[in-house]
Amino acid sequence: MGALEALRAYVRETEEISAAAALAAWDQRTGMPEKGAEARAKVLGRLERLAFERLVSDRMAELLRAAEGEAEGEIDRALVRVWKRNHTRHRAIPPELYQKFVEATARAEHVWEKAKAASDFSLFRPHLAEVLDLVREIARLIGYRESPYDALVEEYEPGMTTARLGEVLGTLRRELTAFLQELRQGTPPAPLPPGRYPVDAQKRFCRDALTWIGYDFSAGRLDDSVHPFTIGVGPGDVRVTNRYREEDPFSSLFGALHEGGHALYGQGVAPELAWTGLSGGASFGIHESQSRFWENQIGRSLPFWRHAHPHLVRHFPALARTSPEDVWRHVNRVEPSFIRVEADEVTYNLHICLRFELEVELVEGRLSADGLPERWKGAMGEYLGVVPPDDARGVLQDVHWSGGMFGYFPSYALGNLYAAQFASAAEREIPGLWARVARGEFLPIREWLRERVHRHGQVYLPEELCRRVTGEGLSPEPFLRYVRRKYGEVYGL
Amino acid sequence: MGALEALRAYVRETEEISAAAALAAWDQRTGMPEKGAEARAKVLGRLERLAFERLVSDRMAELLRAAEGEAEGEIDRALVRVWKRNHTRHRAIPPELYQKFVEATARAEHVWEKAKAASDFSLFRPHLAEVLDLVREIARLIGYRESPYDALVEEYEPGMTTARLGEVLGTLRRELTAFLQELRQGTPPAPLPPGRYPVDAQKRFCRDALTWIGYDFSAGRLDDSVHPFTIGVGPGDVRVTNRYREEDPFSSLFGALHEGGHALYGQGVAPELAWTGLSGGASFGIHESQSRFWENQIGRSLPFWRHAHPHLVRHFPALARTSPEDVWRHVNRVEPSFIRVEADEVTYNLHICLRFELEVELVEGRLSADGLPERWKGAMGEYLGVVPPDDARGVLQDVHWSGGMFGYFPSYALGNLYAAQFASAAEREIPGLWARVARGEFLPIREWLRERVHRHGQVYLPEELCRRVTGEGLSPEPFLRYVRRKYGEVYGL
């Protein structure tokens, strides 16, 4: 057996174990009976440990060394690149330190829940400080050129740096805060009157929407969960979940389009990438771009509502007296608010800019856990013009930091930027794009994304992929043009 | 770490992998999307192989040797006994032979499906002959005292022998064929008129029935599948499935009680047996006794229908004009037929006797695959008085032989016998048993079974367990008394 073949076989076995773990995680968050939770945690821990031990093993080091010289094709080079990167990063962390990190974050998550419920940052502060110390130590061991934050963000966005993010998100912040001021001069769209929208009808509507955009139900499922998510449990099986609130039929629809976007990526990866570890998406940011593309670029467009409105009315007769324009305006209201996950397209990225800046300061040691709530409130006032009245609606709202996931937040903003870049390329390349959307013809768009983005999986680095699709690297401009144009129109500027 | 502790840790890891495999199998047979099938087969194969490699490993041999001297308590002795038995049996089979067996049975199952559809035994014959040769070779390698069939039946019913089965099933066959003649003198009960019973109502009725008998839905689930089954996916998580036919509300009810019986066993195993490999039931026969207990001893009793009838009518108003007695008679009709899985309580065991006798002859080399259809027809005529008109309704009806599962069939009859023995002991020990059943008070029965049978898992050998519960070993007499009494009454003898 050649070295590459040996690496592929070893990776394949690891991926099969990870697929079993993915199924166990899916079940845990959908239908698992409550008394199965303790055993499931053990099973998941076991599978993850088996996969992890294989990732950092001497055997893997050997296989990678041997395969490196042999890798010639694009896929083989990516195979070695991706596994070498993961192997090196994880092997840099001694098992005892990793164990400490796992335990500290488990404790911190537990305390975070309580602190959030009590809206009391002081409960969480020492745990955050502990997690932060460990994260900084891990960044030091992984290594970096300029900022320890570089070592962390690399986990989620390979090739990205703190400096680059600072530029891109800095532009975004300046332009969006300015645009937010402009919007205040416009006329806010009228929201639709409150109503009740039966959950069963919402589920049918979401199923319709997933079918429109080309989600393949014979290669996936739609289930309920507390937080919507998408998970690939193996080639040919990419599952989505959703949640439903009776007072709002749009939240579940956009949830379905968002998760559907992630799922189309998973369903569209080339079959030859199965079991290579390259089928997971070029980066968290690129993955998020696919969900945001369908949720916002398509789902919040007027042509989409020209198509979707009759279906909306069919499922919810109470909305019979609305027009497509009414609904389009309703789902495009801009309102600065405390909570990131409820934010609109214009203010969402400002939430991310704030978190990014605070994360960098924390990781670089320029800000301590103690000073966090004040910095948070100050930045919220400055960027969004609203100051959270308590910790629950401020610094305690997100789970990420308790889990030690510093470096993750930027992916959300990158997703929005890439989505706008891809949408702009799609407009150029798909003839009559918006007329097709208005007719409910979404499959040409899915095919375009599949060909340009999905099928490549992790073969290209995120920015390289962006360049191949759009002709240029990461840029905030298409997103800024997009929000200025659409929200200018909605607000009659 | 002591030797026992080391064995326990090793076993635990193996069991965690097996739990992941169980979940993957459950999902495969319930909600898995069709395009995930190929990947799932790989994942299942990988997990089973990991568990198998650990079972037959040198490390396991070492651990068992070391722990043997240390095991003092009942559980520890059972731990060593069960794993040593499985280790020894599986290690006796060389990997190449096992691989041949896996491949031959996969081919045979595939061809069996086609042969059954075409009702043509000649297609299946060479594959059956090949599987049989391999099975005989495996039996030889495992070793036995009197009959190679001993080595096979031990897999399903530890401690059982061909000679003992010959006696017990011989008595059963003679008595049941005679009783069947007697019944011909009686008055067959009138079946209920045909009707349509909505599947949704059947599902609600089955859920009710599972709740009555004490199935814990917070430690399990009920889903749909093509063939009903029960599977433990870990401590605290024992799942059941069912199927529904619109023309028959009883088939799904008895399916629910049957699987519920299996599931109560799994849910009732003592927590200290978790992750030891001892929580799976004393034997296939004892497991089947728990399903048959609830399905037949309870579910086909008149007191059960005194309780269940108003609920039946509530779910199916079309049955409002029936009485509890009408339903009781309807579900206790005896009719010799070709198909085992559709057989009533009296004729069911005769199907098993036939298969047992043929299996022994095949495995002992006294009958060849060629001669099978004729022997089948002859025995059917002799025992049941009906001769199947084709192979599909005769020798091709069951999947077991194509999968090489020789030695499995007797478990079904043993389940019926043990169930009657347990019911007879329960009648003695639970005051006012049948009056309680008529009032819908099933929990004292579940508690009795849990205490006497369930909590012990595989700690005792099946016959030892039977002796502890009933005061005597395996015996066909309680079952024969039970069918004579009930069916004598139904048929007015």
Structural class designation of chain A: mainly alpha
The run of helices and strands of chain A is HHHHHHHHHEEEHHHHHHHHHHH
CATH class of the largest domain in chain A: Mainly Alpha
What is the C-alpha radius of gyration of chain A, as a whole number of Å? 23 Å
Biggest interface, chains and residue tallies: A-B, 38 and 38 residues
Percent range for β-strand residues of chain A: under 5%
Q: What does the oligomeric state look like here? A: homodimer
In short:
The structure is a homodimer of 493-residue chains. With 493 residues, chain A is mainly alpha-helical. Chain A has helices spanning 3-29, 37-55, 58-70, 74-91, 95-118, 121-142, 148-156, 162-183, 199-212, 249-268, 284-298, 302-315, 324-330, 345-363, 372-384, 410-429, 433-438, 443-452, 462-470, 477-490, and strands spanning 222-224, 230-234, 237-242.
Q: What would you note in describing this structure?
A:
Two copies of one chain form a homodimer. Chain A has 493 residues and is mainly alpha-helical. Chain A has two domains: 1-91; 149-493, Neurolysin, domain 3 (Orthogonal Bundle), CATH 1.10.1370. Chain A is 64% helix and 3% strand. The first copy, chain A, contains 20 helices and three strands. Chain A has helices at residues 3-29, 37-55, 58-70, 74-91, 95-118, 121-142, 148-156, 162-183, 199-212, 249-268, 284-298, 302-315, 324-330, 345-363, 372-384, 410-429, 433-438, 443-452, 462-470, 477-490; strands spanning 222-224, 230-234, 237-242. A three-stranded mixed β-sheet of chain A has the order 1-3-2. In chain A, strand 2 and strand 3 (237-242) form a beta hairpin. Chain A is globular and about 65 Å long. Chain A starts with a helix and ends with a helix. The model of chain A has no long low-confidence stretch (mean pLDDT 97). Chain A binds chain B through residues 13, 16-17, 19-21, 23-24, 27, 31-40, 42-43, 46-47, 50, 216-221, 233-237, 239, 274-275, and chain B through 13, 16-17, 19-21, 23-24, 27, 31-40, 42-43, 46-47, 50, 216-221, 233-237, 239, 274-275.
